[in-house]
């Protein structure tokens, strides 16, 4: 298979059928399509190539392609080829309205969908298997001196047979051997962002991925995100109320971080991590969780150490196929659709109730017949629910 | 941790000699001197931009790889070296603005006055086109680039060479 395929728009229609948009985000769109000849289902991730681009081919895409070509692991979603599309005869390089796509295998499920589908019953063997596969992928990525920087449950894809594929290297980058190099602080989706990033550190290391993996494990146990903060301050409040506010004695030089003073003021002590997972008391998994969600990155275990944790060698043994996955895809967009439908139903029932109330009231008092519907409030909850998934895609 | 996927590709001598420029009627000596000129441009512009040496070394490798596949008649060596430096600065996470890059080339003494103009949109367009063409021709394979400088150290160590020899080889 050649690494680059060039087509014009007409040829594109001949090559693929049943093209659907399955995801949309700050990066662009993800399309699902079936290849006409091989009948294979692929996912196409569009690359924003605006006609007025002043800086040439986007650096983030060069970064992503570089990473994807370096990795070669069963649990990392691999790049099949690049698809370059232009709509004129001039060719891809010279046409200003040309497009580019990264072509991947289509993977139906992701962990957001699996965790939030009430129809799927989790068992320990499958959670163990998913975590093990995810950690081996992270170890592979880290072994090349790279950081994923955007691990979250919707970026961990799951095939029908239970194989985990780590996806979306749009923010990933190679670590510079020079320890004084600073990186962009604004990475990782908020709910999975570790405390060192929230406190404004820009000399972080690959431990940020380990924190995100810990968040996913907690999400498995709780079946909801552990720190769904509405903003950075709220994130800090949630994390530090559970773990305690770090000081220089518990985390070397933490008070020197840029946002330390702002973020750690006025935090009330809440239930600790062990109290939060009181129903798992006595299980080894809480040990692992505590090691992964260690606020000091220097004390947090590495992905490799996490893989050697006794939880993985304990009974029940990790098993890929312990969980029966549905045939329809359970992914982030499915969750969003589900959520929107729920909201719609609630609105409808609310309106009906309002109507009934209004009729009754109107007969009594026509002046203040109906209360203003709490439309605004619902909108707010909606944005809060999905704020965790919005992130700026520009890093330098 | 290295697997076959990440080994730097190597070409046979016959492949190296059969470049696109040669097919286009550019003789070997001209091509060689053109490439050397491109490398000089990259080195001097890189110094003007205060880029680390690694970026320039990588840009020179990209330049040689590009002209393995592209013809010097179609793609001017100036645009080629500019886009090679642009690509390599992106790769090394030290991306410079295109404006500054062109400005650095303008400040070099190789060109007549006002030959390179920052505000020349056609020139920007040319550079971006060359960049894209280069990416396609390289198949976006920018991940497997080994610097030849490492070999110099390797052989120096074997030959027990001294600093003078090392400086010369560089």
TrEMBL record, chain A:
Limits of the Protein kinase domain: 16-312
List of residues binding ATP: 45
Keyword flag tRNA processing: no
Top-rank lineage group of the source organism: Eukaryota
Keyword Kinase included in the entry's annotation: yes
PROSITE patterns (UniProt xref): PROTEIN_KINASE_ATP, PROTEIN_KINASE_DOM
Region (Disordered), start-end ranges: 344-396
Gene Ontology cellular component terms for the protein in this record: nucleus
Record field: transmembrane: none
Gene3D superfamilies: Phosphorylase Kinase, domain 1, Transferase(Phosphotransferase) domain 1
Biased composition (Polar residues): 379-396
Keyword annotations of the record: ATP-binding, Kinase, Nucleotide-binding, Serine/threonine-protein kinase, Transferase
The protein, known as: Cyclin-dependent kinase
GO molecular function per UniProt: ATP binding; protein serine/threonine kinase activity
């Amino acid at each position: 298979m050649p690494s680059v395929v060039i087509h014009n728009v007409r040829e594109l229609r001949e090559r693929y059928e049943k093209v659907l948009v399955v995801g949309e985000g700050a990066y662009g769109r993800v399309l699902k399509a079936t290849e006409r000849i091989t009948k294979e289902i692929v996912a196409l991730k569009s690359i924003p190539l605006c006609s007025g681009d002043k800086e040439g081919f986007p650096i983030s895409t060069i970064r992503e392609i570089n990473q994807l070509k370096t990795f070669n692991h069963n649990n990392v979603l691999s790049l099949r080829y690049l698809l370059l599309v232009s709509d004129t005869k001039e060719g891809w390089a010279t046409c200003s309205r040309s497009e580019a796509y990264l072509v991947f295998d289509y993977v139906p499920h992701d962990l957001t969908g699996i965790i939030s589908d009430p129809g799927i019953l989790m068992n320990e063997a499958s959670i163990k298997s998913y975590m093990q596969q995810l950690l081996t992928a992270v170890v592979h990525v880290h072994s090349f001196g790279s950081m994923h920087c955007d691990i979250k449950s919707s970026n961990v894809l799951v095939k029908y047979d239970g194989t985990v594929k780590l996806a979306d290297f749009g923010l990933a980058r190679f670590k510079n051997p020079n320890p004084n190099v600073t990186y962009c602080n604004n990475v990782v989706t908020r709910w999975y962002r570790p405390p060192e990033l929230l406190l404004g550190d820009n000399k972080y290391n690959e431990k940020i991925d380990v924190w995100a993996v810990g968040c996913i494990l907690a999400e498995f146990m709780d079946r909801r995100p552990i720190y769904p903060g509405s903003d950075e301050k709220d994130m800090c409040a949630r994390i530090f109320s559970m773990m305690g506010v770090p000081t220089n004695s518990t985390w070397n030089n933490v008070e020197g971080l840029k946002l330390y003073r702002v973020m750690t003021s006025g935090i009330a002590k809440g239930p600790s991590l062990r109290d939060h997972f009181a129903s798992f008391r006595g299980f080894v998994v809480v040990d692992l969780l505590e090691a992964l969600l260690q606020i000091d990155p220097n004390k947090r275990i590495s992905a490799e150490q996490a893989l050697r944790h006794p939880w993985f060698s304990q009974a029940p043994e990790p098993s890929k196929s312990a969980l029966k996955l549905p045939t329809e895809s359970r992914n982030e967009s499915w969750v969003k659709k589900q959520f929107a439908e729920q909201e719609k139903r609630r609105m409808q029932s609310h309106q009906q109730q309002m109507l009934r109330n209004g009729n009754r009231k109107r007969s009594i008092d026509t002046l203040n017949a109906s209360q203003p519907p709490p439309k605004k409030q619902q909108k707010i909850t909606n944005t809060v629910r999905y704020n965790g998934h919005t992130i700026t895609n520009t890093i330098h | 941790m290295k697997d076959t996927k990440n080994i730097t590709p190597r070409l046979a001598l016959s492949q190296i000699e059969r470049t696109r420029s040669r097919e286009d009627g550019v003789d070997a000596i001209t091509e060689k001197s053109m490439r050397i000129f491109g490398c000089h441009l990259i080195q001097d512009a890189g110094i003007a931009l205060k880029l680390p040496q690694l970026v320039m070394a990588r840009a020179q490798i990209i330049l040689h790889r590009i002209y393995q596949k592209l013809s010097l008649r179609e793609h001017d060596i100036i645009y080629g070296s500019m886009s090679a430096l642009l690509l390599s600065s992106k790769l090394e996470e030290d991306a410079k603005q295109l404006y500054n890059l062109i400005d650095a080339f303008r400040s070099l003494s190789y060109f007549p006055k006002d030959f390179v103009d920052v505000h020349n949109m056609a020139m920007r367009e040319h550079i971006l086109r060359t960049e894209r063409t280069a990416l396609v021709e390289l198949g976006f394979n920018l991940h497997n680039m080994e610097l030849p400088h490492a070999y110099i150290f390797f052989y120096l160590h074997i030959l027990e060479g001294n600093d003078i020899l090392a400086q010369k080889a560089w």
